[in-house]
Structure formats: C-alpha cells, structure tokens
Amino acid sequence: MSGVRMTGPWLPLDLEHVERLGGHMGVYELAAADGEVMQIGFAGGRSVFGLRGELRRALDGEGGEVAASFRYEITTSYLSRYRELLMAHAADHGVIPAGNVDGDLELGRLSPG
Description:
113 residues; alpha+beta; GIY-YIG endonuclease; 4-stranded antiparallel β-sheet; 3 helices; 4 strands; globular
C-alpha cells in the first residue's frame, strides 16, 4: 500500500478470480468498464466467506450494476481502512462512489498527499 489510496492491480470481476480469494477480512473497490470506481466495500467479521463472499455478491449483481473489475487488500483493520478509502476518494473526486451514497456513514476530511 502506498499512501492512503489502494494501489493493488485491478482484476476482472469474474467467477475464476473471485473463487481464488479466501475468507479473509479486508477492503475492496469495484470499478466499471471505464475504470471509474463504483463502490468501496469491506468484508468484516460478519461477512460470510469474507472477501470471497462479498465479491461473489457483487458478481451476482446484488446491489445494482455489475462491476467489470475489482481490487482488494487483506486487513483486519477493515473498518478504518474502508473509511480511509472513502475519504481519499472524496478528496480526489469531490464525492464518494455512487455505490456508497445510500449509507449513513459520516466521514471526516482527508487531505492525501
């Protein structure tokens, strides 16, 4: 991880890549075909099958439009990292991703370098 932004490689959101993931806790980003981040999410202690389960739900289209690609980080500090990624996205784009707008999460301000 470099700075506060996620820098891992983008992977195709398909069954082959999702099924390779373990049941780890962590965070992920979903992107549309044009590369725009659609949603930032996390797999926490209550997530069934961890990252694999959350990304499988995204692959199945739960919650709206199906993304084209994803990237992820394994971390047990998933909630603070999730909030950090949302704040970094808001600092870069002026808003959080469209897939996160429905939440009632209050975020602070972040000035990433």
